[in-house]
Design goal:
- The chain has about 60 residues and is mainly α.
- About 50% of the residues lie in helices and about 0% in strands.
- The protein is flat, with a radius of gyration of 16 Å.
Length: about 60
């Protein structure tokens, strides 16, 4: 039942993030995999997120405070 309510929200989020500046990607599994499916391990996901964070952060010298 959870997929019934979550799927439209995921599609709406994807539409919202489909801008070049967001740099977001979406990977979908087979429709019966459920909302907990992801294409790799949790460790791989953290590595992808960290790599994106490093390329998108401002220069450390620009910080104030």
């Amino acid at each position: 039942m959870g997929n019934y309510y979550l799927n439209p929200a995921v599609y709406m989020l994807e539409d919202f993030l489909r801008t070049p500046s967001a740099g977001a990607t979406f990977d979908y599994g087979w429709s019966m995999k459920g909302h907990g499916w992801h294409p790799g391990s949790n460790a791989a996901l953290v590595k992808m997120m960290a790599a994106r964070w490093r390329t998108g952060r401002p220069d450390r010298g620009a910080r104030t405070g």
